Amino acid sequence: MNDFKEKLEQNKKIYGIMIKDFINSAIVPLLIESGYDFIVLDCEHSGGTFSDIQNLAIAAKNTNLQIIVRPASLSYEHIARTLDMGADGLMIPHIDTKKEAEKVIEYAKYPPLGKRGYGMRRYLSKFDSNSSADYKKKANSLTTIFIQIESELGANNIENILDVEAIDGLIIGPADFTLDLGCIGEYNNERFVSLAERVWKTANNKSVSFGIHFSDLNQIKKWSEKGMNILMYSSISNILSDETKDLVQKMKCN
Question: Does the predicted TM-score (pTM) go above 0.90?
């Protein structure tokens, strides 16, 4: 067991950030120094490539920073190949049903849990082993699986979804969730809050970690006080944009 998985299993707080742009392995030591536990490389909404995944994995191999990837789709190619590139885990978007959650595990885990093919690129992962059998066992145990609930349908199916073995965490995508509800960006909307709380309470009852990816620190604080333990704020590009704008304004005032 590694520290990251132990924190998840004990519902301890973990801290992450998303990368959509400026994808470069040089960001890894900077984020480690800043105290992050994980980064999410967003390949759903960016130009992130399999080579980018591999480069980040190599940079983070001998560190505690977890490289989590949000793949472009729920497909065997995007899930299994992402892990073959050395990713420590996955954050799968738009999971609405138990059947879709089962597909994630089928593609991400080796037999007997799933049907992932053996890629034999063990040197990229944090749990390299000289034994193929030992490597397979470690991969099944240590690969992190986050799924995203981003719709009313997903929230209503959450009990069945969490019947699926090997899900480590639920992360609500609030923009797409409120888009689905017809109130995009209204994160205090009663329907959104009610459905998000249903997801959180179900996760809590089943001892599964829970998070909502906000770009609003007040929202993160509010949900953290409720018990949310996956704390994921904004993205590198958004933070860079906000900080540089603020600095220019401060210089203009002097």
Answer: yes
